[in-house]
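Here is the promised in-class demo. Please do not try to memorize the tokens; focus on the logic of going from shape to residues.
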């Protein structure tokens, strides 16, 4: 053995390295540097191990979240791991996939693969996605079961049950914008109701004998009718895409005690288009069209009215609210259209069904039965739906009976009284937030103007003519103001379609955990201890400040634990 002052002894080499070198398998590592291998082998005899600083190194970098919110978001996306070499080039091993909205999707796979399969080009599903899909089918979260009506009333508040209570949580992220189709509600069809009813009113103003002194032509009716057709088409196509891609969201809207009534809105809008068709487009509509338009009403009413009558969680006394008028008014509008086409038995049938259920609904809403949920204190525009049904009933009966007789006049006078009883309460219409559902509350004003035009033709006088002008002006200004407001929220403020909280509630109310606060006798700030003792987690005082004992009056031990209920 050679000895050299500059070289270390063989005993300085770790035994593990010597064992690895002695047990080396020939040809195991073909790509390593032979010169480095020889250098290590010879080091056991005369030279120490020398590690070259130019050897290629590998590093593993794991991106860490900068905040708890980002960590929660990444828990849905999956972990992202990057392998990088020394030169900085790297490759992401796992592409993040946002799965937070998958439970609302009709298909949780990739849209590209679905479209390829529709074109006949089968694309194999990745193993990890197939595993996720099977796990989703076998382990459906309990929050996506059918929600009872009580749960909506318990978790939501507001006139339209669209505001989450402070003690509730949702299953979708609250701090970011959801996909557009998830934010597109069924109440969007209210815009169609407002504009299409305006087309009917302008047609009546142009063709009625009682309004000839206004010299109004059919041009405005023609423009509004075509605009209404375009609007109904756009809204219907958009909501059809929501049904296709986010069926769970549609199902939750159907179980919503208020939103379910808006499922009548698209079909009522079609009836309005049929009633408001300009004479230049079609002087008369074919009677078979009426049966096609009324078929959806019959199907929905068999389901909804059956729930009202049979009891359970969705009986009328429990879910009654002013928006239920949308489920009734379609019968009268359908009877009006059928009678104008020359039909007899069908319109009378729907008129009778609508009249029976309207009387029950009217009494239920007026009585405020003890089993019924309390309506909001503020008088929201939803209450104008009280005016819609009697106006539509008056027009329908006048068309069926071929005269505006006492039955029609009784219904008209009831609606007129309800209209004025709401209009004089101006203070009740302040301090509420704009909503798309307001459009559904404009067509009762328009219906009141149309019925007044019809009444003025059988009872002409200065009073009726002034009433026609006044009610028509109010309806036009209301629709115009809502149109401007909708445009501002859509293109300027860009908040026309906020996150639809109503469809993202949980099946059960989140449990509140007990929070323990320990007193520390060595704390320099006694006021902090006093705050923790008598304050809940939401920073609200449990007791009144005047009743709080002073620090000297506290008899508890220094280290006793206090339980504070949130």
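The designed amino acids, position by position:
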């Amino acid at each position: 053995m050679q000895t050299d002052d500059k070289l270390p002894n063989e005993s300085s080499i770790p035994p593990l390295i010597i064992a690895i070198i002695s047990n080396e398998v020939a040809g195991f590592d073909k790509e390593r540097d032979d010169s480095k291998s020889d250098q290590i082998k010879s080091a056991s005899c005369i030279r120490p191990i020398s590690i070259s600083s130019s050897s290629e190194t590998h590093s593993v970098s794991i991106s860490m979240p900068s905040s708890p919110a980002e960590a929660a978001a990444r828990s849905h996306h999956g972990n992202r791991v990057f392998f990088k070499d020394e030169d900085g080039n790297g490759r992401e091993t796992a592409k993040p996939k946002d799965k937070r909205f998958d439970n609302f999707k009709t298909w949780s796979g990739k849209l590209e693969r679905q479209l390829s399969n529709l074109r006949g080009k089968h694309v194999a599903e990745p193993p990890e996605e197939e595993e996720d899909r099977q796990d989703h089918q076998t382990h459906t979260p309990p929050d996506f079961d059918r929600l009872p009506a009580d749960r909506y009333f318990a978790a939501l508040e507001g006139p339209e049950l669209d505001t989450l209570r402070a003690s509730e949580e949702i299953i979708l992220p609250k701090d970011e914008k959801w996909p557009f189709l998830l934010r597109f509600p069924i109440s969007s069809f209210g815009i169609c109701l407002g504009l299409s009813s305006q087309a009917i009113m302008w047609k009546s103003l142009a063709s009625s004998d009682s309004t000839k002194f206004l010299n109004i032509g059919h041009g405005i009716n023609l423009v509004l009718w075509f605009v209404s057709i375009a609007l109904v088409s756009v809204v219907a196509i958009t909501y059809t895409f929501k049904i296709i891609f986010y069926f769970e969201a549609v199902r939750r809207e159907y179980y919503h005690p208020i939103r379910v009534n808006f499922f009548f809105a698209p079909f009522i809008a079609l009836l309005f288009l049929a009633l408001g068709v300009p004479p230049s487009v079609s002087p008369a509509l074919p009677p078979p069209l009426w049966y096609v338009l009324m078929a959806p009403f019959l199907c929905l009413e068999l389901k909804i009215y059956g729930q009202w009558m049979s009891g359970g969680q969705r009986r009328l006394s429990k879910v009654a609210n002013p928006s239920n008028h949308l489920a009734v008014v379609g019968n009268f509008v359908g009877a009006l259209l059928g009678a104008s086409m020359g039909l007899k038995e069908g319109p009378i049938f729907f008129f009778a069904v609508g009249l029976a259920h309207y009387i029950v609904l009217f009494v239920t809403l007026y009585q405020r039965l003890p089993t019924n949920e309390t309506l909001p204190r503020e008088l929201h525009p939803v209450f104008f739906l009280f005016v819609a049904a009697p106006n539509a009933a008056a027009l329908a009966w006048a068309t069926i009976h071929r005269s505006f007789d006492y039955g029609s006049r009784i219904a008209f006078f009831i609606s007129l009284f309800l209209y004025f009883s709401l209009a004089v309460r101006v203070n009740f219409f302040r301090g509420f937030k704009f909503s798309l559902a307001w459009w559904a509350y404009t067509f009762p004003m328009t219906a009141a103007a149309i019925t007044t035009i019809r009444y003025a033709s059988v009872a002409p006088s200065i009073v009726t003519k002034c009433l026609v002008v006044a009610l028509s002006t109010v309806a036009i200004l209301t629709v115009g103001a809502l149109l401007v407001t909708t445009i501002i929220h859509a293109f300027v403020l860009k908040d026309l379609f906020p996150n639809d909280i109503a469809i993202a509630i949980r099946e059960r109310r989140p449990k509140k955990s007990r929070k323990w606060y320990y007193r520390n006798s060595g704390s320099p700030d006694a006021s902090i201890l006093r705050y923790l003792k008598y304050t809940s987690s939401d920073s609200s005082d449990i007791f009144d400040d005047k009743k709080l004992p002073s620090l000297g009056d506290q008899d508890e031990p220094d280290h006793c634990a206090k339980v504070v209920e949130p």
